[in-house]
Write a structure and sequence with these properties.
By secondary structure, this protein is α/β, with parallel strands linked by helices. The protein is built from 27 helices and 26 strands.
């Protein structure tokens, strides 16, 4: 009997996409829907309510247990879970477990028996379901959100980096001259509360400020308790000059207490908070926060759960730690530093808080261990890493840290030559339809790269932005037809697959995203067939619509997988064979600030960014550098003067590609070796260079000539 996994494999989509088609979801591309329906017909698959996957008695329903329905953090987590699940054909039951009575928690047992899996937020919920005996994970999948110690329970886990976030908040207060800093937090048994106290204590220890236990106020994550604790604190320690609130409910309680005591904020006491607020809250424009990404936590939790529901394989539990972002507002006062003026004083988005290095945390832990328990252990993935020397070399080249070195790493943007794959793998490569595009499967891509010494492979998100046709009234109203974007969980699934495969190899993964310039112009051409400069307003709207989806995707991938990524590519076409497609003024008016916004999540996660673009590039090189890219992939070296490009870069960009595909198609080995050596020597001198063929390595390139390229690179390394 055929299964949903069989249908998904034949159609070249995820099981979640098959589920959406069967449930009549509207956000499925018509071509994808057709492929799924054809696969269902070919396999004579009979979907029904009781048999829609590998598991029996499936309900296509999951449950989310959260402790507080009125808290901005938890309602936003719920929205992320719900939107991600519904886009994959699943319903979500939301359960409020605010009261800790056995009766209130016990009802989770009855819900658990009626759903396919659960997302939990508290250890008490886990215990009620038999988690201490390890039974739950064997029956139905569980994912935890907000519990940093849940990894020890052999389940998937998604949470924000509380230690680094609290450290950044406290460090900011210290930088502003505050010395007597208190923290009001949750109960001591809560891992998130303990982690935030740990981050607070580490920041004090690093600044050589003694940690006073009188300034640590353990309580609950709710405003009434926080208000009482703040009154007690100010009675006990009236010299307190700053308070770190461990969540937004606590912050409200702290502020109420200070207002009742007529203590001005920030003049007398500065207040900062871990968590942001509802946009219409009076604190949303006032409070300095370490802002979590609750929507992203929900999306990632749903992806992990649905991945388990739709997989036949055993998947090792994952711990996903998402960064917080420091948003500096009015509640802490003081004069900002120059760095903060340029970054943190973005009162909407803030700037990413980099994870504290493990060695640094371990060095600070003895100073805080008398006051709070914190366990810093290596992640499972750290224990199975393979030798990553060539990935390190690639990263150094992108950052121009090995200029002048002829040890050149190798990266290919696209290899589709089946004969080459057969020769290297000694078997036929397996193809899959991934998001409507036929690709060699990730497993074969990575094995191929490992065998021939390629430093990294791209994980490509190959969707083509499309719009639904509508009546002609949209143009008169100035509105856009709806765009058809893939679900974010499908994108996370694809990347998660590449990462899992590559972790135990010496091959890196590069995230390859579409940029927005060429897609915007193509969509406008499809809609009206006009020049973009004649419809600036519509141009802006299309660009903004594409940007909103792509930025969210880039942030999800970079925030979750930054430590696993070699670099990030943004593919676009800013030029043709004659030069730029738009004038500098036109480009600056619509695209410059949007592309900077698009690549920001990669840059703030410390990842090198590469622009892949065909066309004649010499006049665009200064613009590419100004946009914030670290490197440019020269995709059409045949129409470019490499010396002119290098001169225009002025040492500010690294280079990738630049080996003409025509060289491999038509030349003998000696010619290939000589030209590769010449290109390598020129581009690597005073710059970083990663060798690669400019265009796709397709079936037109003889296998022997590609191996001539490998020999040429080997000679260059020697």
């Amino acid at each position: 009997m055929s299964t949903i996994a069989d249908v998904a494999k034949l159609a070249g989509v995820s099981p979640g996409t098959v589920s959406r088609v069967m449930n009549g979801a509207t956000n499925v591309n018509p071509d994808t829907r057709s492929k799924v329906e054809q696969a269902i017909a070919k396999l004579a698959y009979q979907p029904n309510f009781q048999a829609r996957s590998l598991r029996s008695k499936r309900t296509d329903t999951i449950a989310l247990a959260i402790p507080e329905l009125t808290n901005y953090f938890w309602t936003t987590v719920a929205r992320g879970v719900q939107e991600a699940s519904q886009s994959n054909g699943y319903h979500v039951l939301i359960c409020n477990t605010f009261a800790r009575s056995p009766q209130n928690l016990r009802y989770l047992e009855s819900i658990y028996s009626r759903v396919d899996g659960m997302i939990l937020s508290r250890r008490s919920e886990w215990v009620v379901l038999g988690g201490d005996e390890g039974q739950v994970s064997r029956e139905k999948p569980i994912v935890f959100v907000g519990q940093s110690q849940a990894a020890a329970w052999n389940v998937d886990n998604v949470y924000s980096d509380s230690i680094s976030g609290a450290f950044a908040l406290t460090e900011h207060l210290i930088r502003l001259g505050r010395q007597k800093i208190a923290i009001v937090t949750g109960r001591q048994s809560s891992t998130s509360a303990s982690d935030r106290v740990a981050g607070y204590g580490m920041a004090l220890a690093e600044a050589q400020i003694p940690l006073d236990p009188e300034l640590i106020c353990w309580g609950e994550y709710e405003r009434q308790t926080a208000e009482r604790l703040t009154h007690d604190l100010m009675e006990r320690c009236p010299e307190t000059t700053a308070i770190v609130a461990a969540n937004n409910e606590i912050a409200i309680g702290v502020m109420h207490a200070l207002e009742k005591r007529h203590i001005p904020v920030p003049e007398a006491v500065a207040v900062v908070c871990f968590d942001d607020f509802y946009p219409d809250s009076r604190f949303a424009t006032l409070m300095t926060v370490a802002s979590q990404s609750p929507y992203d936590i929900g999306v990632n939790a749903a992806q992990l759960l649905l991945n388990r529901l739709n997989s036949e394989d055993y998947l090792r539990p994952q711990t996903v730690v998402l960064p917080a972002r420091l948003i500096v507002r009015q509640s802490c006062g003081g004069v900002p530093t120059e760095v903060e003026m340029n970054t943190a004083f973005d009162t909407t988005q803030g700037h990413l808080i980099s994870p504290l290095p493990r060695a640094r945390m371990m060095a600070l832990t003895p100073s805080i261990s008398p006051f709070v328990d914190v366990t810093i252990t290596p992640k499972d993935v750290d224990l199975i890493q393979a030798d990553k020397a060539q990935i390190t070399l690639l990263k150094q080249a992108l950052k121009r840290e090995c200029s002048g070195c002829l040890t050149v790493p190798h990266f290919e943007y696209a290899i589709t030559n089946s004969a080459l794959y057969r020769y290297v793998l000694e078997r036929e490569p397996q193809h899959e339809f991934i998001q409507q595009t036929s690709l060699i499967c990730p497993e074969d891509q990575i094995e191929f790269a490992q065998r021939i010494g390629i430093a990294a492979v791209p994980c490509r998100f190959p969707f083509q932005p499309a719009i639904h046709p509508m009546d002609q009234g949209w143009a008169a109203d100035g509105e856009l037809p709806p765009f058809d974007f893939p679900s974010l969980t499908d994108q996370l699934d694809l990347f998660d697959r590449y990462i899992r495969i590559a972790r135990s190899t010496n091959v890196g993964i590069a995230a390859d995203f579409r940029s927005i310039f060429a897609d915007t112009l193509n969509i406008l051409d499809t809609l009206n067939g006009f020049r973009p400069d004649s419809q600036t307003n519509l141009l802006q709207k299309v660009a903004s619509s594409l940007l909103a989806y792509q930025t969210k995707l880039v942030q999800l991938i970079c925030d979750r997988f930054a430590s696993d990524l070699a670099f990030v590519i943004f593919s676009d076409q800013l030029a043709d064979e004659n030069g730029p497609c738009l004038s500098q003024d036109e480009f600056a008016a619509v695209f410059s600030h949007r592309i900077k916004h698009l690549i920001r999540p990669a840059r703030e996660n410390g990842l090198s960014t590469v622009l892949y673009t065909p066309g004649k590039l010499d006049s665009l090189i200064p613009l590419i550098s100004d946009l914030g890219f670290d490197a440019v992939y020269i995709a059409q070296p045949e129409v470019n003067d490499l010396a002119a490009i290098k001169q225009a870069a002025a040492g500010k960009l690294s280079f990738m590609g630049a080996i003409p595909v025509s060289l491999l198609m038509n030349s003998d080995e000696q010619t290939i070796i000589e030209q590769v050596a010449s290109t390598t020597a020129m581009l690597a001198a005073e710059n970083g260079y990663i060798a690669g063929v400019g265009a796709e390595v397709n079936n037109d390139i003889p296998v022997k000539n590609f191996f001539s390229l490998l020999r040429a690179l080997s000679i260059a390394r020697d």
